Amino acid sequence: MEKLLRLSALSLETDERSLLQGDLDKIVGLIDAMQSVDTRGVLPLAHPLDGTQPLRADAVTESVDRDRLQRNAPRARDGLYLVPRVVE
Amino acid sequence: MDNLGTLTGIRDALGAKAASSVEIVRDCIRRIDTARHVNAFITVCEEDALGHAARADAAIARDGMRGLLGVPIAHKDIFCTDGVRTTCASRMLENFVSPYDATVVARLRAAGAVMVGKTNMDEFAMGSTNETSFFGPVANPWDVGRVPGGSSGGSAAALAAGLVPAATGTDTGGSIRQPAAFCGVSGLKPTYGRVSRFGMVAFASSLDQGGPMARSAADLRLLLHHMEGHDPRDSTSADEAPTPHAPQRTMNVGIPREYWADLGEDVARPLEEAVESLRRLGHRCHEVSLPHTAFAVPVYYVVASAEASTNLSRYDGVRYGHRAGEPADLDDLYRRSRSEGFGIEVKRRILTGTYTLSVGYYDAYYGQAQRVRRLIRQDFLDAFGQVDVLLTPATPTPAPALGALTGGVDPTVMYKQDVYTVPASLAGLPALSIPCGFADGLPVGLQLIGPHFAEDRLLALGEAFQRETDWHLRTPTVPEAA
């Protein structure tokens, strides 16, 4: 659980933690039912219509108004996003 | 409240100048207020909507009716709307205002539809009861002590209560079809790629699909016409011809036996009567088998959770969304912003997805799920070699009571409710949910599943069924808010 929380960048209160620990065990139990299917020789299906990633020309087609976009930023200044200091 | 009428009815009344858009939109706003205890809306855009309606009336007077000019619509609060907040029913996006419209919103706007508001939903579309919303649960208009289904529960409840004649929804594992069934309305999950995902907040990218919700199959057809089509801004958007409107024909309808095995008598009876109705209309109905059906729920919860854990990694408290106060350092900022911003069901799915994607488990879970997904799709492709469409129940039961599946209850009980809707999602197939009767006063829905891009077939059969029956015209009496 500690590792999953670190990988997910989440932390949990004590009561949430005991609840989710139990829930995860039940969910793993649910999904383990698919382990009984014989899938030897079956290719994984990543896209339901076997689509492939289309490529477009590397050209500027539109641009975003930075000030407007950054109105959603909890903290921004002079066009920059602010975060706690990472380099001393 | 009296009946608001259907989308096609409203469009025709506007075209005949028998009603004005301002009158109709004002009526919608009044109804939304009267039914505010249903909690179907997160945001209501009264001023914008009335302004837009007045412009629509002027355009109709000047140039005549076109498309959906002046017709009110509600958008699920997962579709980005320029200038109107898009919350995804999460504290994380409580104050997020998109700088652009989703393609679906832009197309409906271009067709003249008037957005009256944004509907409530399960947080980030994760849930089958609409109880995971940060803005509180939605009530089922047929019985306000019951859930409307989810995740597009606000859209379904708004339609059932007669608040709007049309709404958008999104469907990842049944989020259009299941609430449509619980609320006695019609909903279509199009083929994966039929409707653009651009500007639709991502949950599980290989499954998510936007679609129309309304009061009849004919109304769904009209909405789909204004939503579908290739979008270069969505790399998974299909470059297909628009859905045709072919002449009626007799169809071979397959009834997959795996979908009826555990069905309760109360839900089975209306469905069996629906099969009889289709037979009377000349359609041939016979049993088929989809042998991997039982594995669809496990596969779905691996694929959807894995993709969700990846998609939701973008919420970092830096560029947009909730940010924790007084962070000690960058890691603390990420962890607390996410932990405060996401609700318990979202955390559950992120942790599940992180687990199944982690080193040492990836092939056993995600790899195996993708291989079984291919077998599930192959079941459908084989069946469509014999039949034109499949007819199944939309849900195992009618709408459960509020709280029956959440709040400390084993989450896998709720997940298993998706048993009839997730297989078509995994296979990327179009599927229609329409009302076919009642069990103890609660609506029961039937599902029609078709081959890829065969929406026309589903809508044609739905329209034929709705010409013979009046289940879709039944409306609940919603008590007014105190």
Descriptive account of the structure:
The complex is a heterodimer of chains A (about 90) and B (about 475). Chain A contains three helices and two strands. Chain A is mostly helical and about 90 residues long. Chain A has a domain of about 35 residues. Chain A has a two-stranded antiparallel ribbon with strand order 1-2. The mean pLDDT of chain A is about 90. The two termini of chain B are about 15 Å apart. In chain B, strand 7, helix 8 and strand 8 form a beta-alpha-beta unit. Chain B is of the alpha/beta class and about 475 residues long. Chain B is built from 15 helices and eleven strands. The radius of gyration of chain B is 21 Å and the shape is globular. The model of chain B has no long low-confidence stretch (mean pLDDT about 95).
Quick description:
The complex is a heterodimer of chains A (88) and B (482). By secondary structure, chain A is mainly α.
Biggest β-sheet: strands ordered side by side in the sheet of chain B: 4-6-5-10-11-9-7-8
Number of beta strands of chain B: 11
Tell me about the biggest sheet of chain B? Answer: 8 strands, mixed
Largest sheet of chain A: 2 strands, antiparallel
Helix run count of chain B:
15
CATH topology of the domain at 7-250 and 430-473 in chain B: Amidase signature (AS) enzymes
**What is the CA-atom radius of gyration of chain B, in angstroms?**
21 Å
Residue stretches of chain B low in confidence (pLDDT < 50, at least 5 long) are none
Query: Which structural category fits the helices and strands of chain A?
Result: mainly alpha
Helix content of chain A: 25-40%
Query: Quick one: how many beta strands of chain A?
Result: 2
Quick one: overall form of chain B? globular
Helix content of chain B: 25-40%
- Shape field of chain A: flat
Number of helices of chain A: 3
User: What's the architecture of the domain at 7-250 and 430-473 in chain B in CATH terms?
Assistant: Alpha-Beta Complex
CATH superfamily (homologous) name of the domain at 7-250 and 430-473 in chain B: Amidase signature (AS) domain
> Whole-Å distance between the termini of chain A?
32 Å
Model regions low in confidence, pLDDT < 50 over at least 5 residues of chain A:
none
Taking the alpha carbons of the first and last residues of chain B, their distance comes to 15 Å
